[in-house]
Design a protein that fits this description.
The protein has 396 residues and is α/β, with parallel strands linked by helices. The protein folds into two domains: 164 residues, 3-Layer(aba) Sandwich (Rossmann fold); 208 residues, Phosphoglycerate kinase, N-terminal domain (Rossmann fold, 3-Layer(aba) Sandwich). Helices cover 34% and strands 17% of the residues. It contains 15 helices and 17 strands. The strands form four sheets. A six-stranded parallel beta sheet has the order 3-4-2-1-5-6, with helices on both faces. It has a six-stranded parallel beta sheet with strand order 10-8-7-15-16-17, with helices on both faces. Helix 9 packs across helix 10. The termini are close together. The structure holds adenosine monophosphate. Adenosine monophosphate (AMP) binds next to helix 9 and strand 14.
Length: 396
């Protein structure tokens, strides 16, 4: 397999799949530029080597050509961030794109319009992928967050570059970091799983049982576990149809010798709001009219002790309703413990949209070994699935 750092892009026309699916406000201004910022490492390497860069991306889930999903909205910011001229093709295929590609000199960038304006992109259409492939002589996939999709520009296209395909720097780092956690992790290995629903994390738990020493639970899934064990969780969030599965997980954990930690105390509220009346209860004994919103102080101490003794930590999902300041303490205490463990030498990987919002809120984002912005792709990787965007780069 080719590694981007060893490759010389001089005089090459390089198709780079990036993920510029950035949030836009009502004036089509970018609200969070991270995804563009992190793509610059790969782009600059190609430009510095003397190659030309052709950027492909999607934005949103357009039905046909919808102006609000145009990549033209990211053009001004991208142009500001690079030292060279960025051209824009108003359609990713067709005569104009072809002419711009033909005329593109080395050390310049061409941004193609949203590939999802053609339904063939999401269908993984081979002819569409072949057309895009014809624009370049080298393919770089740097869109890890789209790697779980078998789309034309994220996976199918790679087959047209049997000798000249590779991961970009961002995608390589993401894969390396996830492998560090999921393949031969340093023990003790602790996974912290929170968020609202256990149903979305079942496959991850099942895959992790064979790898981890500890699983720490927070959020809604914590209450589903307590309910499955016969506890009274009051009006707390839980999933009725997951109760048998929750029990199954607890049994399996015993077989695998994995400790599953649930909360012993819970910060409860009389309504779902920041201004609710708060009271701390034993999680297995919450009154009917109260709902669990956060892990309690005793649980924080217990969880922190486990985290501080860990050498590898994977964290996905907030431990409580962190969006409300009055119920964010548990998530903060865990976020802080993971930082402290990392400072002591543990390897920490944090991911998922809500978890990133939480660590941003606590201003701790740069204190972890790796923060994955990939969402769905990261979850599928943790579930042990083979992602099409990764498989397509490896040698046959
Ligand atoms: P998920 O998308 O499943 O990762 O869930 C993230 C959401 O779960 C966040 O918006 C949290 O506010 C929410 N959450 C965490 N703990 C609780 C709880 N105890 N009750 C209700 N929602 C929660």
């Amino acid at each position: 397999m080719i590694h981007i750092q060893d490759f010389n892009f001089k005089d090459r026309k390089v198709l780079v799949r990036v993920d510029y699916n950035v949030p836009l406000n009502e004036n089509f201004e970018i609200e969070d530029t991270t995804r563009i910022d992190v793509s610059l490492l790969t782009i600059n390497k190609i430009l510095e080597d003397g190659g030309a860069v052709i950027l492909m991306s999607h934005l949103g889930r357009p039905k046909g050509k919808e102006a609000k999903y145009s990549l033209e909205h990211v053009l001004p910011y991208l142009q500001k961030k690079v030292d060279v001229k960025v051209f824009f093709a108003e359609d990713c295929i067709g005569e104009e794109a072809q002419n711009l590609v033909d005329a593109l000199p080395p050390r310049k960038i061409l941004l193609l319009e949203n590939v999802r304006f053609h339904k063939e992109e999401m269908e993984g259409d081979v002819e569409f992928a072949k057309k895009l492939a014809s624009y370049g002589d080298t393919y770089v996939n740097d869109a890890f967050s789209a790697a779980h999709r078998e789309h034309a520009s994220t996976s199918v296209i790679a087959r047209f570059f049997p000798k000249n395909r590779m991961f970009g720097f961002l995608m390589q780092k993401e894969i390396d970091s996830l492998n560090k956690v999921l393949v031969n992790p340093r023990q003790p290995f602790t996974a912290i799983l929170g968020g609202s629903k256990i149903s979305t994390k079942i496959d991850i738990i099942n895959n992790l049982l064979a790898k981890v020493d500890n699983i720490i639970l927070g959020g809604g899934m914590n209450y589903t576990m307590h309910k499955a064990l016969g506890g009274n969780i009051g009006a707390s969030l839980y999933e009725e149809d997951m109760l048998p599965i929750a029990k199954e997980i607890l049994n399996k954990a015993q077989d695998y010798n994995v400790n599953i930690y649930t909360s012993s105390d819970t910060v409860s509220a009389d309504k779902f709001g920041n201004d609710a009346t708060r009271r701390i209860y034993n999680t297995a004994n919450i009154p009917d009219f109260m709902e669990g919103m956060d892990i309690g102080p005793e649980t924080c101490v217990k969880y922190r002790n486990v985290i501080l003794k860990s050498d590898t930590i994977l964290w996905n999902g907030p431990l409580g309703v962190f969006e409300f300041d009055n119920f964010s303490n548990g998530t903060y205490m865990i976020a802080d413990a993971v930082v402290k463990a990392s400072e002591q030498g543990a390897f920490s990987l944090v991911g998922g949209g809500d978890t990133i919002s939480a660590i941003n809120k606590f201003k701790l984002t740069d204190k972890y070994n790796y923060v994955s912005t990939a969402g769905g792709a990261m979850l599928e990787f943790c579930e042990g699935r083979k992602l099409p965007g990764i498989l397509s780069i490896y040698d046959d």
